[in-house]
Amino acid sequence: MNNSKDNLSGEESLQIIQEMIRSAKQEQKDNGMGWIVWGWMLFLASALTVINIHLNLVKTYFFWNTFGIATIVMLVLSTIRKNQKKISRVTTYTKEVFNKLNIGFTITLLVIIVAINVSIGPISGFALLTALYGFWVLIYGALFNFKPSIIASYFVWALALAGLFVQTFEWVMIFHGLAVLVGYIIPGHIAYNEFNKSVGRNTKSNIGV
Question: Nearest-CA neighbor of 71 among 99, 32, 113, 30?
Fold first, then answer.
């Protein structure tokens, strides 16, 4: 009985060590899918809103309301999946910092959304949202040593600043769409390609190619 427990403990220790090695290898790597998915969702909401302003097919904020509902559904499903999976016992320093910053980003995002609906209005509000994107993209690039995101963050901030000087919702949507294209979508696809190449190299090395 004691030997069984010792063997189980040894297997668990080996699993933890292996998980630590995998985490260390991938600490500065990300497949970019999160940036791609959210980027395209935000870009489509912006682009469809601009088109709708000219065609007047639905209410002005219809696509953003749709985006909000889709976001809630995705977050609920993501939470359910995480709860169903086995929780990892290994958390790297980078992941821990990133998770805490993610909480701060989300809270600030919600405050700006409330401000858009209560006081500052959608034009200034979306410009501020864009500035928040720039901060988040810079943090991501710095934590994961990903230069495309670091470079993109300054372009996003420039578009956010430009958004503060426009007079129409159409133009702030154009700047917002360009910001997520530059800050989310393009770096996301770069990260996705680099991640797949890295996985391919690791697979070849593991099989002795």
Answer: 113
